[in-house]
Amino acid sequence: MPETNPFRGSRFLLSVARLGxxxxxxxxxxxxxxxxxxxxxxxxxxxxDVRTLARVSKxxxxxxxxxxxxxxxxxxxxxxxxYGYARVSESTRRQWxxxxxxxxxxxxxxxxxxxxxDVRRPLTSLDQEMLSWVHARHKPVHILLTKAxxxxxxxxxxxxxxxxxxxxxxGSEVSVQLFSGPKKIGLSDARAAVAEKLxxxx
Length: 202
Known about the structure:
By secondary structure, the chain is an alpha/beta fold. It contains five helices and seven strands.
């Protein structure tokens, strides 16, 4: 029996450059965040089974807005600007930090964060900062270790084990999995995790 994808049919809603432009309602939101070039847009497209839902740029750091996508069964997926890319001005970096940090720290609709990390470079200092922000709000985090196809199965499994071990902390709700959009590694598990965070029916 083929898998039912609760995110098939998701569509772009709007882009915002300021927090005040976000929808003023109670729709549940799951946000996607990660270092630039970690595979965030590719992961979103794979989850929704739409190749062009989130724009995949060859230039890391291109996305400067919060992009929102409506899910057919209810709720929204939120694509936050990538962080950590060096070739942007300091003023632009501060703007992005304020936008992303403000959303994570204050958005009432936020139910959970999906944190995207390249399996070859996990848990950077910026990733740790993002985890601290979300932990302070007592929101669950699901980590996708993307580009898992770039490592051998044994090497990828070792990274997964190490990341899980390093994230053990009292009071936090953090889950971690291997993922590759192009190779569909962990795709079903990722869809199930995000659907559960949005409160969608199974």
